Amino acid sequence: MSSVELRRELEEYLKSLDIETTCVEHPEVFTVEEMMPHLQHLSGTVSKNLFLKDKKKKGLWLVTARHDRQVNLNDLAKKLGVGSGNLRFAEEAAMLEKLQVGQGCATPLALFFDKQKDVRLVLDSSLVNGDYERIYFHPMTNSASTGLRPGDFMKFLKETGHEPILQSFE
């Protein structure tokens, strides 16, 4: 399926859950720095996403944090119990297989396509426990950003069977 078809399928799923979204179309972006000029006017916060694997390739992890947070992979690996130095970026092929998205398009919204629940989500607790009106993620393409209310995002995760591991990245 093309990214347009995947996006449409995701949007239909969100509607079926009565989740209201807002969407901002923008040029293709591959980094948070490229994306922020298009989103800085919005109320809410923007996420950044890292698709990782552990060294022994036994686990796939999607880390979703506020765009301005530092994610120390060694510290995170210790907290997740996979051992210091054991988290690294996963190959694009794994992301395409499990989440249906490629480089620059990682998003927790793609967990909808992880039917086997092979990917564990590590979520910056400030995204859902903060006072943000909306959290913005890519909707299966890096040429748009979709905003969800934190409660609706948690509902989405529950419905897809992906219980997040809440972490503080402060």
Automatic annotation (TrEMBL):
Stretches assigned to the YbaK/aminoacyl-tRNA synthetase-associated domain: 26-156
Residues passing through the membrane, by range: none
MF term (GO), any: aminoacyl-tRNA deacylase activity
Family according to the record: Belongs to the PRORSD1 family.
Record-given protein name: PrdX deacylase domain-containing protein 1
Native organism: Erpetoichthys calabaricus (Rope fish)
